[in-house]
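# step 3/5: fold
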Amino acid sequence: MLPLVVALLLLIPQSSRILGGEFVALGVAQGVALLLAGRGRKMTAEVLPSRLARVVLRFTATGTTTLLAVTSGLILLAGCSAGLYLLVPAVIFALIDGVWSAWLFLVPHQRTQDRGG
């Protein structure tokens, strides 16, 4: 969702300070939404078989993309246009996380298949 909203915000002609405020708001809203969405989900071994998968799923989405979007916005608010360069890794991490989550959701795990499911 982050790449789409970033692209839409960049299409609107506006000053870099206003854009920075929008990116800070976007990063905070995304972080809160991801934390609330993942709060009721249990990260058990049955859901995610490897510890690496649990760590990547929990910290990549909420931490990296949110931190980069908020930092980009703060740099733009300070009047430096170099904050836009932080959006590139934020969008890349968001896309990788989306593919990772889809992979975990769609590909059946080996443990499930061994039980006859």
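# step 4/5: annotate
Residues 16-40+47-114 form one domain.
# step 5/5: archive (pending)
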